[in-house]
Amino acid sequence: MNGHERFNLTARVLHWTMAPLIVAMLFVGVGMVASVANRPWLIDLHRPLGIAILVLVVVRLVNRLRHRPPPLPADLPRWQVLAALASHWLLYALMLAMPLAGWAMLSAGGYPIVLFGGVHLPAIAPQDPALYAWLRDAHGWAARLLFATVLLHVAAALFHAWVRRDGVFGSMARFGRRD
């Protein structure tokens, strides 16, 4: 990779906007499970934040499909190239599936999805206690997988930034006049 290739500005802005939202969402989710006292306000934060992430990931996927990412370094081992591709698509799948599963779970439980300003989202699944229980478990396991995948993503980014110094990190991190 040469030092001048990078993701387009939209991809970089979406990446750095969504990264703290997703990390916050993971911690909000843990807090909802761990704290009875804080659960109500965390739920009120979790629902609209999840929908915001859903909207942003759809925009991000459209952008990704319209704009090819910069190539990985030619000397990167094949298994690392495959791992990078697989982990990125897994991140996209989880970023899309998590809010949809949460929305469907609440729909199946008969719970309203209230966003800021009193806006209610329609149910996307039939009200069914068994489906609610299954989706709740699936949402929890997907959150654990997302957390692990985010940790691997950060580790790989730091490996490229601090060990390989090959421009991969800079292709997403740099903001400059050429944008």
From TrEMBL:
A single Pfam family, by name?
Ni_hydr_CYTB
Q: Where are the transmembrane segments?
A: 12-33, 45-62, 82-106, 141-163
GO molecular function, a single term: heme binding
Q: Which GO terms describe its biological process?
A: respiratory electron transport chain
Q: Which GO terms describe its cellular component?
A: plasma membrane
Q: Which UniProt keywords apply?
A: Cell membrane, Electron transport, Heme, Iron, Membrane, Metal-binding, Transmembrane, Transmembrane helix, Transport
Chief location category: membrane
What name does this protein carry? Answer: Cytochrome b
